[in-house]
C-alpha cells in the first residue's frame, strides 16, 4: 500500500499533522506510527493523572479551530481553567486576570498599577507605531506586573524569549477574545488531545 505522508511520533505536532491530512483537510493517505515505548502526548504525556507538561487550549486558537473542523473535539471532554497564577521573577505570585474585574480585585496589585495595566492593554491593542517593549517601558508598570503581561498573558518563556510585535499583539487580542474562559484543559489529562487526534486519523483511514 502506498502513502502520501508518513508521520512518526505521537506528540501533539505529529498527531495533529496526521489528523489534518487523514481527515481530508490536506487530502492525503497517511501512515502514522510511534515508537514501541512512546506514550500518547510526547512531551505532554499524562501518567497516572499527572501531565509532564500541561497543555492548555485557547477556545479561539488554531488548535481548537482545527479540532472543531475535523470533529476531534467530540472525542475530548474539556473543563474551564478556573485560575492561573504567574510567579514573577521576584517570586511574587500574581493571578492572571480572566476579567477586567479580576484586575481591580487583585489585592497584590497596587491601585496605580491596576490603572496602568488597563491602560497598557487598551493602548497596545490599538497602537501600531510603538513596539511592545517601548509601550511596556512607557507604561511605567512595576516589574512584577510587567512580568504578569509577559509570562502570564503573552506566555513568553524567559527574559531572552522574543516574539515579533505582531505576534504579541495577536496573543493579547486572542487572550481577551477568549474571556471569560481563556483556557480549557482536557478532563483526563493533556495526552487526551493526542489520543483524540490519533482516533480522528484512524476514523479517516490512517
Write a brief caption for the model:
The protein is an alpha+beta fold and 206 residues long. It has eight helices and eight strands.
Describe the structure.
This protein is of the alpha+beta class and 206 residues long. It contains 8 helices and 8 strands, in the order E-H-E-E-E-H-E-E-E-H-H-H-H-H-E-H. A two-stranded parallel sheet has the order 1-2. A two-stranded antiparallel sheet has the order 3-4. Strand 6 and strand 7 form a beta hairpin. It starts with a strand and ends with a helix.
Features:
206 residues, 12% strand, two-stranded antiparallel ribbon, alpha+beta, elongated, 8 helices
Give the number of helices. Answer: 8
Number of DSSP E strands: 8
Radius of gyration, Cα only, in angstroms?
A: 20 Å
Q: Please tell me what the overall shape is.
A: elongated
Strand content: 5-15%
Main sheet properties: 2 strands, parallel
SS class:
alpha+beta
* Average predicted local confidence, pLDDT: 84
Largest sheet, spatial ordering of strands: 1-2
Summarize the helix and strand pattern as letters. Answer: EHEEEHEEEHHHHHEH
Span of the ends, CA to CA: 12 Å
Helical content stands at 40-55%
Runs in which pLDDT lies below 50 for 5 or more consecutive residues are: none
